[in-house]
Automatic annotation (TrEMBL):
Protein name, UniProt field: Probable membrane transporter protein
Domain of life: Bacteria
Organism of this sequence: Bisbaumannia pacifica
PANTHER family reported for this sequence: MEMBRANE TRANSPORTER PROTEIN (PTHR30269:SF37), TRANSMEMBRANE PROTEIN YFCA (PTHR30269)
Location in or out of the cell: Cell membrane
Ranges that cross the membrane: 7-31, 43-61, 73-95, 101-119, 158-182, 188-208, 220-236
Pfam family, one: TauE
A GO-annotated cellular component: plasma membrane
Entry keyword annotation includes Transmembrane: yes
Similarity remark: Belongs to the 4-toluene sulfonate uptake permease (TSUP) (TC 2.A.102) family.
UniProt topology in membrane: Multi-pass membrane protein
């Protein structure tokens, strides 16, 4: 498959994923990471993390009045040690091994999203989710499902804005540590920059309809897609 075809597929996935994330609060990494893992695993996790910075900044700013600031603080505190652990996984894994980790973590996240019991976020839960998210997002770019579970029973604006800010802080931490560890490559930045217009299209579209969508059905659609993608990534090639 040529680079142009791969780029068009990734651009489509980025636009759709940005629309879903902007409307529901999760879904970007669940959609983009498996597709990127299948087509260009060398772009993970840096290109994915770079793309998520403007997306989450936009969503957080759009609904900033609904942010749970205490929750963001505890999640960010737990994120620090998790980020270092995620870096360790990334350093020792081959591309095929990383695909296996992405596939397995995606499937586990989907199952948790479908079957986790109702609970209210507290300090311990926030810190624990921050730890888990630090590991998975730094290693694979996928970190949304634990945060979505944490806030899944809160109002939509609270879920979207708080998760967006948690992502934004966490992604900056992950990118800084990845940079210090020498895990950045120029082509990862170039691909991320090239995909920014597709990200903008999806984000702007989500603003027009985010208050009218059936979030539950869209969330189930995202989880179904992620489950299928995770299974495909686990198939040996």
């Amino acid at each position: 498959m040529g680079d142009v075809t791969i780029f068009l597929i990734l651009a489509l996935a980025t636009a759709v994923a940005a629309f879903i994330q902007g409307a529901v609060g999760i879904g970007f990494a669940l959609v983009v990471a498996p597709v990127m893992g299948l087509l260009r695993p060398d772009l993970l996790p840096v290109a994915l993390l770079i793309l998520m910075l403007p997306l989450n900044g936009y969503v957080g700013l759009r609904e900033r009045d609904a942010i749970d600031w205490k929750g963001v603080g505890w999640v960010s505190l737990g994120r620090l040690p998790g980020t270092l652990a995620g870096l360790g996984i990334l350093v020792v894994m081959s591309a095929d091994g990383l695909n296996q980790v992405i596939g397995a973590s995606t499937i586990l996240a989907v199952l948790a999203g479908l079957f986790a019991p109702v609970f209210q976020p507290n300090r311990s839960a926030c810190a624990a989710v921050g730890l888990i998210t630090g590991v998975t997002e730094t290693a694979t770019g996928v970190g949304g499902p634990p945060l979505a579970l944490l806030y899944q029973h809160r109002p939509g604006p609270v879920l979207r804005a708080t998760i967006a800010l948690c992502f934004l802080v966490g992604e900056l931490i992950s990118l800084a540590i990845l940079a210090l560890a020498g895990q950045f490559q120029p082509h990862q930045w170039l691909w991320a920059l090239a995909l920014l217009p597709a990200l903008a299209v999806g984000s702007i579209a989500s603003r027009l309809v985010h208050h009218r969508l059936d979030a539950r059905r869209m969330r189930l659609g995202v989880l179904t897609f992620a489950l299928i993608s995770g299974i495909v990534l686990l198939i040996p090639r």
